[in-house]
Amino acid sequence: MAERVVLAYSGGLDTSVGIGWLADATGKEVVALAVDVGQGGEDMNDIRQRALDCGAVESVVVDAKEEFGRDYLMPALKANAMYQKTYPLVSALSRPLIARHLARVAKELGADSVAHGCTGKGNDQVRFEAAVAALAPDLTSIAPVRDLALTRDKAIVYAEQHNLPIRQSAANPYSIDKNVWGRAVETGFLEDPWNPPIEDLYEYTQDPAVIKDADEVVITFQAGVPIAIDGVAYTPLGIVEKMNELAGAHGVGRIDVVEDRLVGIKSREVYEAPGAIALIQAHEALEALTIERDLGRYKRGVEAEWSNLVYDGLWFSGLKRSLDVFIDDTQKYVSGDIRLKLQGGRAVVTGQKSDASLYDFDLATYDTGDTFDQSLSKGFIEIWSLPSKISARRDLAQQ
């Protein structure tokens, strides 16, 4: 039996041409693997058949949408994951899931290597290969675009010469990646960060400048995970899909950022992630109500480290696993309801309640019935400021 390589297959130009390109360059049989993470667009059965028509010896399609929502998006939500405090890790979250299925299918079919369609300039090459290395260190990773000199112009010529059943899109100036958590757009005129995004870039969100009545929604959380919207229960995937619809209608979640890539360059990226942004804001509000001060402060540092690890392709690292344990422990009281007002590109928290709330009205109120003993504050401040007072005396004496 000939050696095999399992290719992460999107159905687009590069990975379609990559099937024959890989076979010619390596002599291996190519198995195509398409993973559905809620990217929408073409029917997955059409993608499966296209891979076969392009020369794959087998074509595997995996519906991983529910798995993606449950095992990847919910941990990200618990971590309020935002790389550089801005980007909700849209692409970074899908890569370890795809890599896990790459490694699984390779083992099941006896392949000795896997492949992906990434270039040598982006983050995804690292994410795929680092994940595969952690899951199946005996597998070799191949990148046709990076390792086998498959450029876009060569891909178009190759597709025409071999009559491959794909629609070449050389006229499209953008590079687009999407899944149910959001959508990423780069290249073309966006490579100049002075150029503003145009409305045609967006798909998941409507123009927030269009005036429309606000919508209010109530999101119910249990142990950090959203379980219902306006009293209607949903799966994690269903919650994200519903919030994409509701928040996207008001233009929530548009992001324009110059991002620090793992490979050392800065890249201008435009994202839209309506459900992700709305859910993270709701989750943060509920944490503010239910998590004590010092734990909340410490968790924010952990969130930044967690986001960096995921962005850098280390989903399966030991540090990431340990941080997951900490984050999960912080969520045991993060249950309750958050009311959001959606309008004009914003998701604004307008109400919050929880049976595990740490908010004590009798302590917080300034009205009659206040139970906070203000006489204790004077001594507290004196002790709290004592180190500063002593060091200030020292500084003055040394002048």
Automatic annotation (TrEMBL):
Q: Which SUPFAM superfamilies match?
A: Adenine nucleotide alpha hydrolases-like, Argininosuccinate synthetase, C-terminal domain
Where in the cell is the protein located? Cytoplasm
* UniProt entry keywords in alphabetical sequence: Amino-acid biosynthesis, Arginine biosynthesis, ATP-binding, Cytoplasm, Ligase, Nucleotide-binding
- Looking at the record, the residues that make up the Arginosuccinate synthase-like N-terminal domain are 4-165
Superkingdom field:
Bacteria
- GO-annotated molecular function: argininosuccinate synthase activity; ATP binding
Q: Which GO terms describe its biological process?
A: argininosuccinate metabolic process; L-arginine biosynthetic process; urea cycle
Binding residues annotated for L-aspartate, in chain numbering: 119, 123-124
Q: In which pathway does it act?
A: Amino-acid biosynthesis; L-arginine biosynthesis; L-arginine from L-ornithine and carbamoyl phosphate: step 2/3
Q: Which InterPro entries match?
A: Arginosuc_syn_C, Arginosuc_syn_N, Arginosuc_synth, Arginosuc_synth_CS, Arginosuc_synth_type_1_subfam, AS_cat/multimer_dom_body, Rossmann-like_a/b/a_fold
Q: Among the entry's GO cellular component annotations, what is one?
A: cytoplasm
- Pfam families referenced in this protein's UniProt entry, alphabetically: Arginosuc_syn_C, Arginosuc_synth
- Quaternary structure and partners: Homotetramer.
Which protein are we looking at? Answer: Argininosuccinate synthase
Which organism was this protein described from? Frigoribacterium faeni
Lineage at the top is: Bacteria, Bacillati, Actinomycetota, Actinomycetes, Micrococcales
